[in-house]
UniProtKB/TrEMBL annotation:
This protein's UniProt keywords: Hydrolase, Lipid degradation, Lipid metabolism
Family as reported in the entry's similarity comment: Belongs to the lysophospholipase family.
Organism: Gomphillus americanus
Biological processes, Gene Ontology terms: glycerophospholipid catabolic process
Protein name: Lysophospholipase
Region (Disordered): 52-80, 742-764
UniProt xrefs under SUPFAM superfamilies: FabD/lysophospholipase-like
Keyword Lipid metabolism: yes
Entries under PROSITE patterns matching the protein: PLA2C
GO cellular component: a single term: cytosol
EC number: 3.1.1.5
PLA2c domain sequence ranges: 162-761
Catalysed reactions, semicolon-separated: a 1-acyl-sn-glycero-3-phosphocholine + H2O = sn-glycerol 3-phosphocholine + a fatty acid + H(+)
Entry GO MF terms: phosphatidylcholine lysophospholipase activity; phospholipase A2 activity
Length: 764
């Protein structure tokens, strides 16, 4: 099965074969860049130059928003949620593009090409691609009886999408939603019993207030993070730890994992998720034959295309681009079962996942995205970087940042704005805090998970600065690299503002809320009809920030890090700035990989090369080498924070790294961080996260054997820290118990003091 597929795709695991690359790229350009086809740009889908900063990408929305106008629909047919005549023409033009693509490929006279060329770069499936394209074109044709017509009719059916009849309002404030508070109450009933089982303590001896609030999070890292995360979570579940968790959170591939776990495919069992992945990851998501088959055959065609059609036709102001196609292709691989028949439409909405958590049976998932806030360009003639004032440079550095957006089955929320909306209302336009219905009084359905899969994993929407950091290690040996590196490094601020690939567009619920939300909210967000959201790994590859939200009161944060750049990027340490800015107490400041740990191999080599002239000197060098190894992190590292804040910026970081064999005396401590990096392990030979070719973030093919290898590695690493993690959880439990008893004792003494004082008054 895999040998024939690899023959088509060639020996490299990171690149498509020439034929599929041409076809896939042509399909994308035909759908997402109409200027390249001899037709006019769709009036309902405004395509933009991809190489623009987010600020400029959102600028075109400003005029509409500034005028105070809400999104209008034109004349409606009475059934469709606000589709006007102009939008109908736009959809027809869009549909015709598929026909243009098929015709352009079909016009090639394959029979006239040499047989060897045809056999090598023009496989049979490419020759038959025009017919598949024409079939897909018929599916998305809005003619009566077409699939798109059926999907659009169902979009206005309140029995299928009950949320469309509801008016949504923006909740302003930083408090947790009533739904999440109710969930926490229900979940505590389960975690108390789970903790008793995990720590082997009679449940009757555990007071509800002593149960630690535990959050488990997974990193970004594509399919590597998805597979490794599933294995790590499965191990935590088997050990009894996962059932003690209140929250899970993810970035990129770990968001995909949460979607699978809370679906009819994963059935809330990570072993079943891994089994499902073995059936589905052996074929590249961009390989046209299986993708087109799923998009043109029932029942998967409606399942996969519903979100695409609802967004493309129902939100004419949104950009349609690579992220949307990417999400649809991801869904075709991840959300479709082995037999491709037993699909469940309930798997298509994040808000539907509340059916698994309302009773507290499972932890609440948190999905993450970021928006890149870029300062406005200098209005006058651009000033060369060497002539810019220090003030302007400082302003540029301090005003360009990523704001984090979280999604749970209950709410979509942004800390930077200090506001949120119900998850079921994501995808509809808002104005001045109220959702705007279509001409027929109905709103658009919630954005489908296939679209969100693309947003969660859209690492390719990185800035040019991120791209250069990715390729820099590869090109360091090229002649002239030094000069090029100096030039590009000096322009990093400029590279940091440019996104070559346009992020996804989602209607902005903060439109028109100027003066009513947090003062930290960037002003540009009040005038943009759409948000440009992307992979949260652009900011931090671990979803730490949402778990530090006030009200969630996390006691223990367990992080499984499958990042490709664990040591160099040091994602745990990146959180220090966030914690300092928000004056968060309890975070173990200064944690993460030791500074310079990425140069450990060089240090060891230098120690080896150094010649010892005496036995004492030799012993000293051995001790130095051991110090290098001891300072580095291992398979499991625990840090304990302080309950007090630093009083000054110059004060030394307060954190306590717990050695694996140490007893934990943390009676006055803060947050506990338990860190599991995906490192090579001698118990699983033949696999190395940094060196094994198939474990690249950009690899989208995993054989069952490779999945077994990654699963075994993650499992071996978890076992290394299993007992240390258990001791930490028990220590935090004992701390909470001790503090509660001390508080109760003090309250009892105060009660007796008041009673004694009251009795003493009778003797006066």
């Amino acid at each position: 099965m895999f040998s024939s597929y690899r023959l088509i795709y060639g020996s490299s695991r990171h690149f498509l074969g020439s034929a599929s690359l041409i076809a896939g790229y042509g399909l994308y350009r035909g759908l997402a860049n109409p200027q390249k086809i001899k037709t006019e740009a769709l009036p309902g889908t405004k395509w933009v130059d991809n190489a623009l900063p987010t600020e400029q990408l959102e600028k075109r929305d400003t005029k509409t928003a500034a005028s105070g106008k809400t999104l209008k629909s034109g004349d409606s047919d009475g059934l469709s949620p606000g589709l006007g005549n102009d939008d109908s023409w736009a959809w027809e033009n869009f549909s015709n593009k598929l026909s243009n693509i098929g015709s352009s490929i079909g016009s090639v006279k394959w029979s006239e090409l040499p047989d060897k060329v045809t056999d090598l770069i023009v496989p049979t499936w490419l020759q038959t691609l025009p017919e598949s394209i024409r079939k897909l074109q018929r599916e998305v044709d809005m003619g009566p009886g077409s699939l798109a017509d059926e999907i659009w009719a169902e979009a206005a059916d309140t029995t299928i999408n009950p949320e469309i009849a509801e008016t949504a309002r923006v909740s302003i404030g930083n408090d947790l939603s009533p739904e999440e508070i109710s969930f926490r109450e229900q979940r505590r009933l389960h975690t108390r019993h789970a903790l008793a089982h995990y720590l082997e303590i009679p449940v009757g001896d555990i007071h509800p207030d002593d149960v630690p609030t535990i959050a488990i999070c997974g990193s970004g890292g594509g399919l590597r993070a998805l597979v490794a995360g599933a294995s790590s979570y499965a191990c935590a579940r088997q050990a009894g730890l996962f059932d003690c968790a209140m929250y899970t959170a993810g970035v990129s591939g770990s968001c995909w994992l949460q979607c699978l776990y809370f679906s009819s495919l994963g059935k809330q069992n990570y072993r079943k998720v891994l089994k499902h992945l073995k059936h589905r990851l052996g074929i590249h998501l961009a390989f046209p034959p299986p993708a087109l088959r799923l998009l043109t055959s029932a029942p998967t065609n409606k399942f996969l295309l519903s979100g695409f059609i609802e967004k493309s036709r129902g939100d004419p102001e949104a950009d349609f681009g690579l992220v949307d196609i990417y999400g649809t292709l991801l869904a075709a691989r991840l959300l479709v079962p082995k037999g491709e028949l037993e699909i469940d439409p309930m798997d298509l909405k994040i808000s539907n996942q509340r059916r698994y958590i309302d009773s507290g049976l499972h932890p609440m998932p948190i999905y993450t995205m970021v928006r890149h806030e870029i300062p406005p360009e200098h209005k006058d003639k651009p000033i060369p970087s060497e002539e810019r004032s220090e003030e302007l440079e400082q302003q540029t550095k301090t005003t360009s940042w990523f704001s984090w957006w979280e999604i749970s089955p209950y709410n979509v929320w942004c800390e930077e704005i200090g506001a949120g909306i119900p998850t079921w209302s994501l995808g509809r336009p808002f104005h001045e805090g109220v959702s705007q219905p279509g001409a027929n009084g109905l709103a658009l359905p919630e954005v489908r998970i296939p679209m969100m899969l693309g947003v969660f994993g859209s690492a390719f929407c990185a800035t040019l600065s991120h791209y250069y950091k990715e390729i820099r290690p590869v090109i360091k040996g090229i002649t002239g690299f030094g000069g090029l590196d100096t030039l590009l490094s000096g322009r990093d601020d400029d590279l940091y503002k440019v996104h070559p690939i346009d992020p996804a567009a989602i209607p902005n619920f903060a439109l028109g809320l100027d003066g009513r939300v947090s003062e930290t909210c960037p002003k540009s967000i009040f005038t943009s009809t759409h948000l440009k959201l992307m992979d949260a790994g652009m900011s931090n590859n671990l979803p730490i920030y949402p778990l530090l939200r006030p009200g969630r009161d996390i006691d223990i944060l367990i992080a499984f890090d499958a990042s490709a750049d664990i040591k160099t990027e040091n994602w745990l340490s990146v959180a220090d700035g966030y914690v300092k800015q928000r004056s968060i107490k309890g975070w173990p400041v200064g944690i993460g990989w030791p500074r310079g740990s990425s140069a450990e191999e060089q240090t060891v080599r230098e120690l080896d090369q150094a010649q010892a002239s005496t036995p004492d000197e030799a012993s000293q060098r051995v001790a130095e080498a051991k110090t290098v190894a001891d300072d580095d992190l291992s398979y499991c590292t625990v840090w304990i924070g302080s309950a007090t804040e630093r009083s000054t910026d110059t004060e030394q970081p307060i954190s306590n790294r717990i050695r694996p064999d140490s007893d934990l005396d943390i009676s006055q401590s803060g947050l506990a961080i338990i860190y599991f990096p995906l490192l090579p392990n001698d118990k699983v030979p033949g696999i190395h996260p940094d060196k094994s070719d198939f474990m690249s973030t950009w690899n989208f093919i995993y054989t069952p054997e490779e999945i077994d290898q990654v699963t075994a590695l993650a499992q071996a690493n978890f076992e290394e820290g299993r007992e240390q993690t258990k001791r930490c959880v028990k220590a935090i439990y004992e701390r909470k118990k001790k503090l509660r008893l001390a508080k109760e004792d003090e309250e009892e003494k105060e009660k007796w003091r008041r009673r004694f004082k009251g009795n003493a008054d009778h003797f006066r």
